[in-house]
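Troubleshooting: if your tokenizer reports a length mismatch, compare against these two reference records.
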Amino acid sequence: MKKRAKRVAHARIRLAEASYPNQRWSMDFVSDRLVDGRWFRILTVVDQYTRECLCAHADRSQTGEKVSEQLERVIALRGAPQSITSDNGSEFAGQAMDYWAHQTGVKLDFIRSGKPAENGYIESFNGRLRDECLNVEVFLDLAAARSKIQRWKRDYNQQRPHSSLADRTPQEFAQAVMQRSFVLSAAERTNESTQDAVCVEELK
């Protein structure tokens, strides 16, 4: 019999919380059924800092290749994160995602098996998705499921205030952070220009 390769045991270090947008994402799957009983799965991705839902893509099956395709679409709109937190399921820990992570330079942080709380951001989001959309909607087919889920995603990002975001929606919070970053950058540029002018005067 072929021997299974053993991994070196190590204690998992608790991941630090994200301190700015697009630093760390979380991703997972949620499953549901169409009216004819066929299952489908939804790939969900959220920004850990802004709580924005970046992806909620439904498909009959999900593979590492399909996950990487959806991540590429998000990255094309907002750039790549430093890392993505997920469980170590075959779709996330397989060769396709390993190759994608190597090509894009994104670190994949896997939580311990049976410890979903270590990816609490996506667990909380998926709970809302199920309670507010999947459990109250009827999906006749995959196209209908995608349409209703995307409509709920827009409502979640643009209309739902979060207590953790000072009662702002994820979109409002993200815009406020971007505006603050722009103001700080402008102030830094002004300060640098002033310092350069002082240096020039001193040289004179």
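Reference record two:
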Amino acid sequence: MIGLRTSWITSNILLVLGPKFTLKDARLVYAPFLKVSVDQIDNSNFKKSHRHLFTDVGTSVSNRPGRPARVYKLAYLFP
């Protein structure tokens, strides 16, 4: 029951992200519900534990140096 509730809460929290988002966007939305700062959520572990919710759709467009961020969508809403 707790697993189902956690999954439901996670899914609904992430709805505010809209159709496309980066993992940092997802962590920014999710952090207040965990009552931690965004820096305390490890990007790799977050991606691994939530990968069933995300579908990779490409990279962001950025004029900044470095690798552009990956862009995702919620798999269960936007198949």
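Descriptive notes for reference record two:
- The chain has one domain: 2-74.
- The chain has a mean pLDDT of 81.
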